[in-house]
Write a structure and sequence with these properties.
653 residues, alpha/beta, six-stranded parallel beta sheet, five-stranded parallel beta sheet, 23 helices, 15 strands, globular
């Protein structure tokens, strides 16, 4: 294992994060001689050409570098223009991001199939009502049929999401008619995920597709295969197997660690492994084993996206988002960190070694040099989870490092699934998005914003998320959140009903009436599909246009960093949503491809991209777009409030 590589320069820890717990652990790490990702980011100077996506390394005639200040002066050795180069680069980013989510979705489908075929016995179907509703939505007959028979047909139908080579993905049945008509006209309806990703990679090979407009269509198709494909399969089937979230109070931040407990952190994206760990830590055998070592019990804690899912479903405490995953190990209190796939830093292995923490990989798709690998198998989950607990309990009994746990804990309400939002707005028998639409039409709510995504050490951790959302809710914009952004806002206290006091008068009134926060946490980054479903439901409820592009809504990933984020952003843009990214964007301003992304797509009836770094500027871009859509719908002036008596209600009915 290589020794920790020192950084050549440092800045005050308070300049790198707004999270007090992370700041404390960064300063402790520096005293301990341990380098964390936040310091590595300061020491790493990005390539000025690469950051503009103005280079091509898709063949070995190059790599070819284009001058960002004069992008049309030169072309690549093969003759590729800056527009072809940046389109190919974005295409491969989107293909990778879509592949990661579809791989996750296919893995969830495989688990679902195992439950149906009874090769998996430790998990079961928890939400039979959602199973039946989803089957009905996809045209599967459920009347007088067993749960097992319906589940088998649903499994076969959703398998087409990945295996189709022609036709349309099953969840196209959910897309508003006008939106789907546009996709069909332009030939971007996704067929099967494997088909779209393979074709995208093929088209970007040297000497293949060299028209940025044509590449753009496949970029959109590949992204849509993520949002309306693998990600949606993952969210819906996870709900069916593990339970559909509903509001639950959960604690967030590093203070959820307990010095007198065996602390096990699960970090990643696969819910099955975390669910298996939950069963293990509640086993009386291991609870007693922990007590025999002097512990008061076993404390199971989440991080990143699988943590957000478990927080939403079970109220499992959450220690922090992506930028805090190394810092939490500096507490010395983590006895084991268990990881699976996506957003797992290789640097965790070195930090874990410095604090004698077990770093354990569990997925065959993601090993880490220097970590211990214990394969997780859904057909026998306890083989993995039991070994993890044995290691964690043993480490507690042999702790030798000083323990320093930041006294930072915030409570928030998590778990606002699409189904619960519908119930919250209309009750069991009259569930509908109509009350939301009505309050947008009458002006109490200005519009809806999805603020999602990663944290990026190029900017001060959590700062842009928090200040952006503060500005949005102050201007009566209801915010939906997923992923690391949700954790940032949870730490800031925005996911409580009391946060309604921070909202504008209209949104505040609605929140107080319903008893909800002005910021609704929907789960992991895969669960961005809940926002797509909610947007479709708003169109269906009526009064706000015929397509998703008509809605007074906008999206943002203010601290994005991953290729998954680009795939997510593109499937929102392709679905009709104005989507603003912070930090930067991999397309060069002043080029034709950039103009297509940031203006041309909207002219074709889609959404469009935006980019800004300042949180207030991002908020203003989103609010201006929402106001533009309100004007186009003719609802830019708030309507007078009218008291409706019972006779009027009967007439409306």
């Amino acid at each position: 294992m290589p020794k920790d590589i020192p950084v050549t320069k440092q800045v005050p820890a308070s300049d790198l994060t707004t999270c007090e717990a992370t700041r404390q652990m960064l300063e402790k790490a520096r005293k301990d001689g341990v380098v964390l990702n936040l310091d590595r980011a300061v020491d790493m100077k990005p390539c000025p050409i690469g950051v503009e996506s103005a280079c091509c390394k898709h063949c070995f005639m190059g790599p070819c570098r284009i001058n960002p200040r004069d992008p049309y002066k030169k072309v690549g050795i093969c003759g590729a223009t800056i527009d072809t180069i940046t389109a190919r680069n974005l295409a491969r980013n989107v293909a990778t991001g879509s592949a990661s989510h579809n791989d996750h979705g296919q893995h969830i489908l495989h688990l679902f199939k195992g439950i149906i075929e009874k090769s998996v016995t430790d998990f079961s179907i928890a939400d039979t009502l959602k199973l039946q509703n989803l089957a009905n939505e996809l045209g599967i007959d459920t009347e007088d049929r067993s749960v097992e028979d319906v589940a088998k047909d649903l499994c076969d139908e959703l398998e087409k999401t990945f295996s189709n080579v022609d036709g349309e993905m099953p969840f196209m049945k959910r897309v508003p008619a006008a939106t789907l008509e546009l996709w069909r006209k332009d030939g971007i309806v996704p067929r099967g995920a494997m088909k779209e990703i393979m074709e995208m990679m093929s088209r970007t090979h040297i000497g293949c597709d060299q028209d940025y407009n044509h590449l753009m269509k496949q970029i959109s198709r590949t992204a849509l295969a993520d949002g309306w494909g693998g990600s949606m399969v993952a969210t819906e089937l996870s709900d069916i197997m593990f339970g559909t979230p509903s509001p639950i109070v959960a604690e967030v931040n590093m203070g959820v660690l307990k010095e007198d407990h065996v602390n096990v952190i699960v970090h990643g994206h696969e819910p099955a492994m975390f669910e298996g760990m939950l069963a293990g830590v509640n086993d009386p055998f291991f609870i007693q084993a922990a007590k025999d070592k002097g512990a008061a019990g076993i404390n199971l804690v989440g991080m990143c996206c699988s943590g957000a899912e478990m927080m939403s479903r079970h109220g499992i405490p959450h220690a922090g988002n992506f930028s805090s995953t190394e810092a939490v190990l500096v507490t010395g209190a983590v006895d084991a960190m268990v990881v699976d796939i996506q957003c797992i830093k290789q640097g965790l292995a070195q930090v874990a070694k410095c604090y004698d923490t077990h770093l354990i990989t569990t997925s065959d798709r993601a090993h880490i040099e220097g970590a211990t690998h214990i394969q997780f198998d859904e057909t026998d989950p306890r083989t993995c989870t039991d070994e993890v607990l044995i290691k964690a309990i043993s480490r507690f009994g042999a702790r030798s490092k000083p323990i320093q746990i930041p006294n930072q804990v915030q409570k928030g309400i998590q778990g606002f699934s699409h189904e619960y939002i519908e119930y919250m707005l209309g009750g069991t028998f009259r569930g509908s998005y109509s009350p939301l639409n009505d309050n947008i039409i009458n002006g109490r709510i200005r519009g809806v914003a999805g603020v999602v995504g990663c944290t990026n050490p190029k900017v001060k951790q959590d700062y842009v998320h928090v200040e952006l959302v503060r500005e949005l809710i102050k201007n009566d914009v209801l915010v939906l959140q997923t992923g690391c952004s949700q954790i940032a806002l949870s730490k800031a206290g925005f996911l409580t009903p009391e946060a309604a006091a921070l909202a504008g008068p209209g949104l505040s009134e609605v929140c107080e009436t319903v008893g909800m926060p002005p910021v609704l946490g929907l789960g992991s980054c895969v669960d961005n599909t809940r926002i797509l479903i909610a947007a479709s439901a708003m169109v269906k409820a009526g009064g706000l246009g015929n397509s998703i592009a008509d809605l007074p809504a906008a999206g943002c990933a203010p601290e994005w960093m991953s290729e998954k984020a680009l795939a997510i952003g593109q499937y929102f843009v392709s679905s009709g949503v104005y989507t603003v990214f912070g930090v930067g964007f991999p397309a060069l301003a002043g080029t034709r491809f950039h103009d297509l992304l940031f203006d041309g797509l909207e002219q074709q009836g889609y959404g469009k991209w935006g980019m800004a770094t300042d949180p207030i500027e991002i908020a203003r871009l989103m609010i201006d777009h929402i106001d533009k859509k309100r004007r186009q719908l003719g609802i830019d002036k708030a309507r007078e409030r009218v008291l409706v008596d019972m006779n009027d209600r009967r007439a409306l009915a």
